[in-house]
Structures are given as structure tokens and as C-alpha cells.
Automatic annotation (TrEMBL):
Name listed for the protein in its UniProt record: 3'-N-debenzoyl-2'-deoxytaxol N-benzoyltransferase
Cleaved signal peptide residues: none
InterPro entries noted in UniProt: CAT-like_dom_sf, Plant_acyltransferase
Top-rank lineage group of the source organism: Eukaryota
Family membership: Belongs to the plant acyltransferase family.
Length: 347
């Protein structure tokens, strides 16, 4: 644990390849197990659980739900009365015949497969740089107090706030022209549960993520107050209606047979803070760290993930990864420092 960063490990984690089992080519998804798990016992008595999943089949919520079932069965001696029973309902995610794709997805479809002049798609993987950015309670409070609109109701969530700032700083760092269109795509869990309505029912273990998209020009994004960016994110969330989700299912089915997705000037974000890892109880000990280790296919690593960790003070902090070409990363670090430092200085 000392080598991992005791008492509060934060990514990037050293020797992470040794904590994950070898699964071969991660791009091969047929004829292989859907789930791999390696449990590594450390000399100090701690444990590390390393997971591989086929993301076409399962998402972070479903994987954590599966782990929770394992933990509950182990802790209760096999009592299955409290576990979340699986449901299938795959027909919910079947494309309609004939398909009905909303106009906004038609425009989005036309951008697929076009690399244009996006430096993110033309830079070789070996010239990319990965950094992790940590935001503590003071950072988030400063950003919300001095950059988020006071009239915004309800107040911006930490995900909305940090995603808006990261998107703006990334766009500036990559040097996109003011007239060029830039996009933000982020994951949204559409499971139901409690009082929450969802497209798929509670207990679905598969992939139930949909991806709202916000779109604007680089000039509008960088030239307007942060409230403009927050408004784009909220509008994208509001547009994720049942009708639009069904349209997205039809849209995804239309991609069958196409090459892997490449989306010009698109920033992809995933929120992993609420998938429930911190609640896992194997009766060994409490979880002290986790998240996405940043190994494997660089195309997936380009997604920024919001991860929940603890800092040295025991406070909950949010860690976000970013991958950029070297020169752009230098500029990004300066841009993000201005946003955080300005808020704290004013405070």
C-alpha cells in the first residue's frame, strides 16, 4: 500500500499492469469471456481487485452491481435474498423496424469517420501525454462561487461544473479555429431505480449508457461566460427523452458494418463517481482507492473519467484524466490553473 500511495492512493497507480490479468487483444470480443477478474493480495494484507469487461456488453454500473452480488454472497454465506436479481429485457434496446432517427442524429452521423483537421485524431499515440487533475472541495466551491451563474437553478453539479471548465480549457489548448464546431459527448445511465424512471429497469446488468451531445463553435465556447457552457450541458441532458433514446438505439444500429467511430473535435466524458464502488463490502477492509487505471487501447483512454478518491486529509476529491498532445497539454495545464486559481484568489 505504501507503493500505491498509502493512506489514500490516487491515480495513476504504479505497476498497474501487474494487477490486471492478461486477456490478449482487447479488441476481440467474440468467443472470449465477458468478464475477467484478478485479485492480488499485497504483502501488507491489502487487496487489489483488477477487472476487465467487454464494454459493448456491460458498463460500470452493471459491473459494480455484479461485484456487489459477489460481495453480498461472500459476506452472507450465500444468502441470495438481498441481491439485485438480474433482468434481461434486451428487447428494449432493439432497433425499431423501420428505424426512425431524429434529425439531430442524422447530422451527427455525417460527422462520423471524418478526421478533418483534428489534431487529436492525427497525433500518433506515442506523442500523447496523460495527466490526472485533482479537484478538492475548495476548488469546486471556488469554481461554483465565482464562475457559475448565481441564478442557475438547481445549482450546477460538480460533474456539470468540472466538465464545462475542462471542455473549454481543452478546446483552447487544442487551438481550434473560432468558426470550427466542437462537441461534448457524455455518458448518462438510463436505468430505473427507486423513484427514478429509466428506459431499462433496475437490475439490468448490461450496458445501459446513452450519450447526450452538446455542440457549438470553438469561438462561442471560449468567448462566452461559463453559464453558456453549463446551459449547453443541461440542454443536452433535457433532450435525452425516451423518444430520443429510442432514436439513439436506431442510430447505433445504423452503424453496423462501419469502421470504428472517429468523431471530429469531440470531447468524451464519463462520470464514474456514482457507480457504487465505494459501497462494496467484502468484509476484508474499506475501499481506499480505485478508478480507471489508464492502460490498454489509447482510443478509449481519450475519454475523460470523473473518479472519486480520497486525498491525504481524508476528504472526497474528484480526479479527472486528460490525454492531449504534448504541446496542447502544456497549454491545458496553464488554462485550468487560471480557472482554479482565479476562483481561489477571489475567495
Amino acid at each position: 500500500m505504501d507503493e500505491l500511495g498509502k493512506p489514500s492512493p490516487l491515480p495513476p497507480y504504479p505497476c498497474v499492469e501487474e494487477l490486471l490479468c492478461e486477456v490478449g487483444d482487447p479488441r476481440v470480443v467474440l468467443g472470449v469471456p465477458l468478464f475477467f477478474m484478478q485479485v492480488t493480495q499485497l504483502r501488507c494484507g491489502g487487496f487489489v481487485i483488477g477487472l476487465h469487461i467487454c464494454h459493448n456488453i456491460a458498463d460500470g454500473y452493471g459491473t459494480t452491481q455484479f461485484l456487489k452480488c459477489i460481495a453480498d454472497l461472500a459476506r452472507t454465506g450465500g444468502d441470495a435474498s438481498q441481491i439485485v436479481l438480474p433482468v434481461w429485457n434486451r428487447e428494449i434496446l432493439t432497433a425499431r423496424i423501420p428505424p426512425h432517427i431524429n434529425p439531430e442524429f442524422v447530422g451527427f452521423l455525417q460527422r462520423l469517420g471524418s478526421k478533418g483537421d483534428d489534431v487529436m485524431l492525427s497525433t500518433p499515440p506515442e506523442e500523447m501525454v496523460v495527466r490526472f487533475f485533482l479537484f478538492g472541495p475548495e476548488d469546486i466551491a471556488a469554481l461554483r462561487s465565482h464562475h457559475a451563474p448565481a441564478h442557475l437553478s438547481p445549482p450546477a453539479t460538480s460533474f456539470e461544473l468540472l466538465t464545462a471548465v475542462m471542455w473549454r480549457c481543452r478546446t483552447v489548448a487544442l487551438g481550434y479555429e473560432h468558426h470550427q464546431r466542437v462537441g461534448l459527448m457524455f455518458s448518462m445511465n438510463v436505468r430505473g431505480g427507486g423513484k427514478r424512471h429509466g428506459l431499462v429497469p433496475h437490475g439490468f446488468y448490461g450496458n445501459a449508457l446513452f450519450y447526450p451531445v452538446a455542440d457549438t463553435t470553438a469561438g462561442e465556447l471560449s468567448g462566452n461566460p461559463l453559464g453558456y457552457t453549463l446551459g449547453l450541458i443541461r440542454e443536452a441532458k433535457r433532450n435525452m427523452t425516451d423518444d430520443n433514446m429510442e432514436s439513439m438505439v436506431d442510430f447505433m444500429a445504423s452503424l453496423h458494418g462501419r469502421p470504428p467511430l472517429t468523431i471530429d473535435k469531440m470531447y468524451e466524458v464519463s462520470d464514474m463517481k456514482w457507480i457504487g464502488q465505494e459501497a462494496l463490502d467484502f468484509r476484508w477492509a474499506k475501499r481506499v482507492g480505485g478508478g480507471l487505471p489508464m492502460v490498454g487501447d489509447i482510443s478509449f483512454d481519450s475519454v475523460s473519467c470523473h473518479m472519486r478518491c480520497k486525498n491525504g486529509k481524508g476528504q472526497d476529491v474528484i480526479v479527472i484524466n486528460m490525454i492531449l498532445p504534448g504541446p496542447a497539454m502544456d497549454k491545458f495545464e496553464k488554462e485550468i490553473a487560471v480557472w482554479v486559481c482565479n476562483g481561489q484568489d477571489e475567495k
